[in-house]
Amino acid sequence: MSTAPARVLTVAGSDSGGGAGIQADLKTMLALGVHGMSVLTAVTAQNSLGVQGTWELPVAAVRAQFRSVVDDIGVQAVKTGMLASAELVETVADLLGGTDAPAVIDPVGVSKHGDSLLAASALDSVRGLLLPRATVVTPNLDEVAQLTGVRVGSEADMRTAAEALLVWGPRWVLVKGGHLPGEAVDLLTDGSEEHWLRAPRHDNRHTHGTGCTLASAIASRLALGDPVPEAVTAAKRYVTGAIAAGFALGGGIGPVDHGWELARGTGSGSGRG
Known about the structure:
37% helix, 9 helices, 9-stranded mixed beta sheet, alpha/beta, single chain
């Protein structure tokens, strides 16, 4: 009998097109050799062209899913994505407070197509309740502006943004600079040490799901025992390859390829025998 793999829980919304949300999270976890589990927070009608509709799940359903998984199976890392409302943010923050597993918080605010996925009324709850629970928070530049008011136009601004986010209590902040021109640069810092992560920019418009995929990859590596800097570095490498292999799907922006390493026979895996 094989030993059980590391267990990672995603608390996020569903993307019916399969490129982002819990679908991307579970694909990423499989590719990286961990056992993915899910708490569904919302359903979206979504495709390569955008989000046509969203429906939140009741708080009781979210809480029951979380307790069902954590109390029986247990988790070694948690990743959060689309939480939609202040009530759901508050619920998930409370649930995270009851587990000592590392938490990767992807503060999803808008979709790749610009559709709002978080109520404006929830921002205070994200800042005051959710960020203090974060082992790593992974905002893109639009989400940085939503949460802090800092508009990032340069690498120097990324440091300012990270400092503004650290005030709210996360252990580490990863400011994703993918929207800046030039190479894809991210800043990881805990306020005392900095790691600038750089990768070549691939000329590929099919990048749907990058944020979900990166956060899930970080959570997977944390569950496998990596320290935060090593987990983020490994996740960045995985996502860079997934972006390079992204493919057209439908009439709009296609997804990254979560299985790119498996297709090449070089999957990261969990190292289990």
